[in-house]
Design brief:
Elements (H helix, E strand, L loop, with lengths): L17 H4 L1 H18 L1 H8 L2 E2 L2 E2 H17 L6 H4 L2 H26 L4 H12 L6 H7 L4 H33 L11 H30 L1 H12 L1 H23 L2 H28 L4 H12 L3 H12 L4 H31 L17
Antiparallel strand pairs: 1-2
Length: 369
């Protein structure tokens, strides 16, 4: 009698590469290194921050581009049509990202920071900036649907350009006025939003697409996926770690000099990332999506575009403002929490989606595969 091995029979984490399996350790080490550099080498912050083009930090942009390119080179772009035709997937993602997420962050900001208007406003802005970069890493590590993630992020990018300013006006002025709360005036730079989308999504997306098309045309899909992708795969995590070190080095002094303020903002942020992830995962399962698509929906809905949130806050309120500090604290909480949620997704997947063929296995696990 033969035994059928199900995806849940082997602990997925054991099938990860060494770099993937210990990612949480590398992330924490990168955060600590960045914070220490920012704290004890304060001139580094000024030097890094001075290297900008159009308000975009060049070092951070390089790190994100290196991080995103290998992941986007893995996407099978000829299969994205199956995603664009899935109305349940697209409709649920739009609802979670542009209705539930901003409203939930608005509520948390007012509940936990009623007496700190600058930090409260900063968190609301973080809630409006939907993730278009690091979500690819979390999705890939958790073996989510790459094509679905690419389409969902592209749609979020369009909505970000079109709706960010209007939603900022609604959540900072209109809704508080209706509820009898304090209102906040802010003008958002459309250029900052457009530049963020073009640099952090447009460039690596185009590079990944061209690499896939030209690579397959020259050598075939088998060579491309079995030989080429494993070579560039590790660079995604190298780029992630490089970005984390730079980000925390640039903001290390601001974070370590105000620990109590950081702690107060950490609570609503932690609740936001964790609860949005679980709510989105369960909502996707409830509408009939498989594990891979549900995971993509969950990480897309729970992540945020920290670079855009920081840029918008600095442009509207100044680099030393509480709003800008809130944008900085965002990734301080988001990065380790979402790394943890990758492991949660891999552990919880077989329990929530028993027998689902899209569950991860030894041939699909990890960002380097």
């Amino acid at each position: 009698m033969s035994t059928v091995t199900t995806p849940s029979a082997t602990p997925v984490a054991k099938e990860m590469s060494f770099l993937d399996r210990w990612l949480a350790v590398w992330i924490l080490a990168a955060m600590a290194a960045g914070l220490l550099l920012g704290r004890f080498v304060p001139e580094l912050n000024t030097a890094l921050d001075s290297v900008k083009i159009g308000g975009i930090s060049v070092p951070i942009a390089i790190g994100l581009l290196v991080m995103m390119y290998p992941v986007l080179a893995k996407v099978r772009y000829d299969e994205t049509l199956r995603v664009t035709g899935d109305r349940k997937l697209l409709g649920l993602s739009l609802l979670l990202n542009w209705v539930v997420g901003p409203a939930f962050m608005f509520m948390l900001a007012w509940v936990f920071l009623p007496d700190l208007p600058e930090f409260r406003t900063g968190l609301i802005i973080v809630g409006l900036a939907r993730c278009i970069a690091m979500v690819f890493i979390w999705n890939d590590l958790a073996c989510g649907d790459r094509e679905a993630a690419a389409v969902l992020v592209a749609i979020n990018s369009v909505f970000q350009v079109v709706a960010f300013g209007a939603l900022g006006w609604f959540y900072l002025q209109v809704l508080p006025s209706w509820l009898g709360l304090e209102t906040t005036s802010a003008e958002f730079s459309v250029w900052s939003i457009v530049a963020s989308v073009l640099v952090f999504l447009g460039i690596p997306l185009l590079a990944g697409f061209l690499t896939r098309v030209l690579g397959e045309k020259a050598k075939g899909r088998q060579w491309y996926e079995e030989k080429f992708l494993p070579r560039i795969g590790p660079w995604a995590l190298y780029g992630l770690l490089f970005t984390v070190v730079l980000l925390f080095a640039m903001q290390g002094e601001a974070i370590t000099s105000q620990p109590l303020d950081v702690a107060r903002m950490a609570v609503p942020l932690l609740l936001y990332f964790v609860l949005m992830f679980f709510f989105s995962l369960l909502a996707a399962r409830a509408v009939g999506l498989n594990y891979a698509k549900s995971t993509s929906v969950a990480f897309t809905a729970s992540g945020n575009n920290f670079e855009l949130a920081i840029a918008v806050s600095i442009g509207a309120f100044g680099i030393t403002s509480g709003q800008a500090l809130a944008g900085v604290v965002g990734p301080l909480i988001e990065v380790p929490v979402l790394v943890g949620l990758v492991y949660v997704a891999l552990w919880l997947g077989p329990k929530l989606f028993p027998g689902d063929p899209s569950l991860p296995n030894r041939t699909t696990t990890g960002v380097q595969s």
